[in-house]
Specification:
By secondary structure, the chain is of the alpha/beta class. The protein contains nine helices and eleven strands.
Length: 249
Amino acid sequence: IEVLNYVEHFDVEGSEATTLFRQVLGHIHDAGPWFERFDGADHIFLFSWGRFPCSLADWRVELRSSIALQVEDRCEDLNSEGPQTSFNRWKDIIIPGHIDFWRVLELRRSNMPFAKRDVLLAFHGRHAGNTASYANVSVRTQILDELDGLPGVSVGGFIEGYHELLGQSIFCLAPRGITPWTVHLYVAILAGCIPVILSDDYEVPFQGTVDWPSFTIKWPMDKAGRELYSYLTSLSPQVLSNMKEKVDE
């Protein structure tokens, strides 16, 4: 398996990711005739973050018939490019995104039983107010503008004790970023929090085996304010308890 993993400090515009891509391809071709044997169809490339593989120069030509494991079915950047398909249903696979192992352990440790959760909903992360590249991510702006200050709500930028907060929250909002994919979905699940997916174009992985509607809520992005709050507060404790059990499964 040839692995291309997104690294946070990569300067994509400066072509560092493409340089790594070319080095990996060079290693594959130097190793022998195996890639050419079936046009790459018996090779697997892993892309564990958004905007990949589309951020790599000539990726369609270079990958050829290889299998791609990727976190979303399209590449998009709200600041610079419209959606372009990066997914072939005949060979590629949508997967969850990467979360560091230490963070997985922290989130699991913070997972509180349903009866001890006293925060209705939480979201903390990048938004237009703290990250310039998120200026066009309107769903996150709406969350802060309409939900901040409401009873049981904790939303805003980065905070200390974030993992503990998720473990005390009933719902965790998972809004899209500059691409449809969002790591907040998987962070919520690890914390035992019911995820509310706010990304109209995001395709969740393993739909044939995972019963996503039983433990998540997918809500229209343009109604991510007071309408969402009203809906969440209308759900009965029994419904919420059942969904929490499904999350932990």
